[in-house]
Amino acid sequence: MKTNKRGISLIVLVITIIVIIILAAAVILTLNNNNPIQNSKQATFDSDVAEVTSALNIYISNFIAKNPIHDGPFKTSGTEANSWITVGGLTANDAKYGSEAAGQTYSTSVSWSALGIKQPSTIAAIQFNAVNGKVRAIPTQTGVVGSPKDSGGNYKVGESF
Known about the structure:
There is one protein chain. This protein has helices at residues 10-31, 36-66, 112-115, and strands at 84-87, 109-110, 123-129, 135-139. The protein is α+β, with helices and mostly antiparallel strands. It has a domain at 38-139. The protein has a four-stranded mixed beta sheet with strand order 2-1-3-4. The chain is rod-shaped, with a radius of gyration of 27 Å. The termini are far apart.
């Protein structure tokens, strides 16, 4: 006797439900901005900003150690708004050694070679504030969160940097 069974088996039904659950999980993770590629871009940018910040701190320490009569490569007696130092750029003028009486010069920028590093590919522009030590940076990649803009359209980093 030959019998034709119509319908689906329990095993096929369970496998189908498992596949639907896996697809739903993938969609939920994507909707929650848990994108590993975007997270890796952001982490690379944050790491590069931290590297430049560290290089700046070493640059300042070495500058003061080599010339103890100089109070540092950047003028720290100005206001916070006027104390932004450009890192890199075409017209970087590194600070010069000397005393205030001998025409001590402060720098308004610092070159990548003076910092001893190459410009990271994830950073389009970066600045350092000599008064408060904050850093503001603009990323080269879209979708990466750089320093948030303030009301004047300038980029500035919060207290976490």
